[in-house]
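User: Here's a protein and a ligand (CO-5-methoxybenzimidazolylcobamide). What would the complex look like?
Assistant: Let me lay out the input and then the predicted complex.
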Amino acid sequence: MSIYEEISALLQKGRMKEVSASVKKALDEGHEAKDILEKGLIAGMDVVGEKFKNNEVYVPDVLIAARAMYAGMDLLKPVLASSGVKAAGTVVIGTCKGDLHDIGKNLVKMMMEGKGLEIIDLGVDVSADDFVNTAIEKNAKVIACSALLTTTMGEMKTVVDKATEAGIRDKVTIMVGGAPVNENYCKSIGADIYKPDAASAAEAALAVCKQ
Ligand code: B1M
C-alpha cells in the first residue's frame, strides 16, 4: 500500500491522529504536499462521499472523516503556503447563503494560499451582500463562491447581480464551484469562471490576480 493509499484508508475510518501521523511521515519522506492532499486526503474523502450517497455510511461517519481530513490539512497548510510567493492579489471566498458545507471551500482556500494569494475567508452561509461588500472593502480581484447544494447555488446569481448593482462588475472576477455547479450554470448566471477542483481554481485565481 502506498503512503497515499494509507492516508486515504485512515481518513475513511476517521482515524484523526493516524492521519496526522501518516501525513507527517509522507512530508518527512519528501512527498509533495499537493500529492498528499490530492492522492491521500481528497481521494479518501471522495470514497466517503460516494458511500454517503449510497447510504453505506451516515452523517456522523462523514463528520468524523471530515475531522480527520482537517487534521491532515492542518499539517499541509503551512507547507502549501510557504511554497507561495508574495501576495499577487486578494480573493474573497465563502460558501453561499444557506449552505454549511465547507470542506471543498477550505481546500480551494488552502490551494489559493499555496499560490501566495491573500484570502479573506467569510466562512459558510455567506450572503451576496457580504461577498460584494467585503470585495469592495478589501479591493479584492476575485470573489470565489462555493455551493454544494442545488438549493444554495442560486445565491451565486445574486452575487453577480449585486456586484453589477454596486458598480464593481468590471473590477472583480466572479469564480464559482462546488459539486452541483458546472460551466453551463456559470455562463447562465453571468459569472466569469467555473472550476471543478481546488487546484485549478487556485491556478485560475492566480492568473486573474497577475493580470
Ligand atoms: Co451534505 N450533501 N448535506 N453534508 N454532503 C452533499 C453535498 C450531497 C450531494 C449528499 C448526497 O445526498 N449525495 C447532498 C446535496 C444534494 C444536492 O443538493 N444536490 C447533501 C445534503 C442533501 C446535505 C443535507 C441537506 C443533509 C440533511 O441534513 N438532510 C445537509 C445540508 C446542510 C447545509 O449545508 N445547510 C448536509 C450536511 C452535511 C454535513 C454537515 C453532514 C457534511 C458537511 C461537513 C462540512 O462541510 N463541514 C456533509 C458532507 C460532508 C457531504 C458530502 C458527503 C461530502 C462533501 C464534501 O466535503 N466533499 C456530500 C456528498 C458528495 O459530495 N459526494 C454531501 C469533499 C469536498 C473536497 O468536495 O466540496 O465538492 P467538494 O469540493 C470540491 C469541488 O467541488 C471543488 O473543489 C473541491 C475539490 O478539489 N470546489 C470548488 C468546491 N468549491 C469550489 C469553489 C470553486 C472552485 C471549485 O471556485 C470558487
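Summary: The CA atoms of residues 168 and 202 lie 22 Å apart.
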